[in-house]
């Protein structure tokens, strides 16, 4: 029995690898590491289906290193130690230290990661980890400090189109079936930048049209086929994309009932509760923000609690937080303010700090006018002084614009009293 299309099309070397040009393109960091043979431990962080596992195998094969693999879902400390013991027997191989690839390394607990630390530090193994979650939160600091982190991106339309053409013309099965892709927009859209998902969809649609000659694929046929086969092709993808999207939009839309329903769907489907807790933290800052600053405190507390107690009890604080956030007033003013500030910072990266806002720790700096003219706010009535704090070229710019809600109304009143020239009372 033939393996699924994504496995049949898995690249075996860098010349076949699609995407991540910022890492494997000529002169880029991971390409240089392979070409030089100086392989050090690293973690591949990116969404599903962008080539993390494939890249780890290509790295190992290119350098002809022995390759061990563990899945963090099923492996424990015992399995980690067994692999390390096996690696020690090959440490003096002329090809170099064996590669230990750990898929979903974010699911390893502290004890499992501690068991890896000595072997990575001593060079017994070169660790390559793959994760869809931010390693800053999920990988212990001592292990993270010994690894470089490479960020992988979702595949763009050009990458996905190349994969489609290769599959149709090079796959041992599809090239015999006279597959013609008339329209590809639905294929690209449904894949969400995930190569594995794209190829799974293509195979499902082709299988649904067996007997046709040629097999013509257009947007309508893809949409109709997927409506009948969602459970087949989209188990992981649905949990990570479609349902989390519905959950986020339900909280943002102030519907606590829909929020807890979609959250229950995710938890019932095996979603990592910490993934949901992180999304709640983002929602609290991005969509509720200054309309209710307590929301961020509750979301942060929820994340810590979920991390401490785990499932099934974690479902209760998650439910409490989701309901609170959905039922809270909304504001994205903080998000809009930082976006505007980023835009201004990118437009003028060299705007000097006004001299009166600089410190003057030395006599020379004081003579040059550093700190001269600065007014200490607490020396003035109301602990406020009218002073320009932006660079001269940006004087008067307004990044934060309060939105109409009870909490920001009070912030706006204060700002109007302090800065009537920027925050008018109209």
From TrEMBL:
<keyword id="KW-0067">ATP-binding</keyword>
<dbReference type="InterPro" id="IPR051314">
    <property type="entry name" value="AAA_ATPase_RarA/MGS1/WRNIP1"/>
</dbReference>
<dbReference type="InterPro" id="IPR003959">
    <property type="entry name" value="ATPase_AAA_core"/>
</dbReference>
<dbReference type="InterPro" id="IPR003593">
    <property type="entry name" value="AAA+_ATPase"/>
</dbReference>
<protein>
    <recommendedName>
        <fullName>Replication-associated recombination protein A</fullName>
    </recommendedName>
</protein>
<dbReference type="GO" id="GO:0006261">
    <property type="term" value="P:DNA-templated DNA replication"/>
</dbReference>
<dbReference type="GO" id="GO:0000731">
    <property type="term" value="P:DNA synthesis involved in DNA repair"/>
</dbReference>
<dbReference type="GO" id="GO:0008047">
    <property type="term" value="F:enzyme activator activity"/>
</dbReference>
<dbReference type="Pfam" id="PF12002">
    <property type="entry name" value="MgsA_C"/>
</dbReference>
<dbReference type="GO" id="GO:0003677">
    <property type="term" value="F:DNA binding"/>
</dbReference>
<dbReference type="Pfam" id="PF16193">
    <property type="entry name" value="AAA_assoc_2"/>
</dbReference>
<keyword id="KW-0235">DNA replication</keyword>
<dbReference type="InterPro" id="IPR032423">
    <property type="entry name" value="AAA_assoc_2"/>
</dbReference>
<comment type="function">
    <text>DNA-dependent ATPase that plays important roles in cellular responses to stalled DNA replication processes.</text>
</comment>
<dbReference type="Pfam" id="PF00004">
    <property type="entry name" value="AAA"/>
</dbReference>
<dbReference type="InterPro" id="IPR027417">
    <property type="entry name" value="P-loop_NTPase"/>
</dbReference>
<dbReference type="GO" id="GO:0016887">
    <property type="term" value="F:ATP hydrolysis activity"/>
</dbReference>
<dbReference type="GO" id="GO:0005524">
    <property type="term" value="F:ATP binding"/>
</dbReference>
<dbReference type="GO" id="GO:0017116">
    <property type="term" value="F:single-stranded DNA helicase activity"/>
</dbReference>
<feature type="domain" description="AAA+ ATPase">
    <location>
        <begin position="38"/>
        <end position="155"/>
    </location>
</feature>
<keyword id="KW-0547">Nucleotide-binding</keyword>
<comment type="similarity">
    <text>Belongs to the AAA ATPase family. RarA/MGS1/WRNIP1 subfamily.</text>
</comment>
<dbReference type="InterPro" id="IPR021886">
    <property type="entry name" value="MgsA_C"/>
</dbReference>
<dbReference type="InterPro" id="IPR008921">
    <property type="entry name" value="DNA_pol3_clamp-load_cplx_C"/>
</dbReference>
């Amino acid at each position: 029995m033939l393996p699924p299309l994504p496995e049949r099309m898995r690249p075996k070397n860098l010349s076949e690898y699609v995407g991540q040009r910022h890492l494997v393109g000529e002169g880029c960091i991971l390409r240089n590491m392979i070409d030089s043979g100086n392989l050090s431990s690293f973690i591949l962080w990116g969404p599903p289906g962008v080539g993390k596992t494939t890249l780890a195998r290509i790295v190992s094969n290119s350098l002809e290193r022995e390759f061990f693999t563990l899945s963090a879902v099923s492996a424990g400390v015992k399995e980690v130690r067994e692999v390390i013991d096996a690696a020690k027997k090959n440490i003096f191989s002329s090809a170099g230290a064996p590669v230990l690839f750990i898929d979903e390394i974010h699911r390893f607990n502290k004890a499992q990661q501690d068991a890896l630390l000595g072997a990575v530090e001593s060079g017994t193994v070169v660790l390559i980890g793959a994760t869809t979650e931010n390693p800053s939160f999920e990988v212990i600091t001592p292990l993270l400090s010994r690894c470089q982190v490479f960020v992988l991106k979702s595949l763009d339309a050009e990458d996905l189109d190349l994969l489609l053409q290769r599959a149709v013309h090079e796959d041992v099965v599809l090239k015999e079936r006279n597959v013609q892709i008339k329209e590809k927009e639905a294929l690209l859209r449904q894949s969400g930048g995930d190569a594995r998902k794209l190829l799974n969809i293509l195979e499902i649609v082709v299988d649904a049209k067996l007997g046709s000659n040629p097999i013509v694929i257009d947007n309508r046929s893809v949409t109709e086929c997927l409506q009948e086969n969602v459970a087949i092709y989209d188990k992981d993808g649905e949990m990570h994309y479609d349902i989390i999207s519905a959950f986020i939009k339900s909280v943002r839309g102030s519907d606590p009932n829909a929020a807890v329903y979609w959250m229950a769907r995710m938890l019932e489907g095996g979603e990592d509760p910490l993934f949901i807790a992180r999304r709640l933290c983002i929602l609290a800052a991005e969509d509720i923000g200054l309309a209710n600053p307590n929301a961020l405190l509750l979301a942060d507390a929820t994340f810590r609690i979920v991390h401490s107690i785990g499932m099934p009890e974690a479902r209760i604080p998650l439910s409490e937080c989701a309901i609170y956030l959905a039922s809270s007033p909304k504001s994205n003013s903080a998000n809009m303010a930082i976006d505007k500030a980023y835009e201004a910072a990118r437009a003028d990266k060299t705007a000097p700090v006004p001299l009166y806002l600089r410190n003057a720790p030395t006599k020379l700096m004081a003579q040059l006018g550093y700190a001269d003219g600065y007014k200490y706010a607490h020396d003035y009535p109301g602990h406020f002084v009218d002073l320009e704090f932006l660079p001269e070229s940006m004087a008067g710019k307004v990044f934060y614009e309060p939105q109409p809600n009870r909490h920001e109304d009070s912030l706006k009143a204060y700002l109007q009293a302090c800065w009537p020239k920027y925050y008018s009372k109209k």
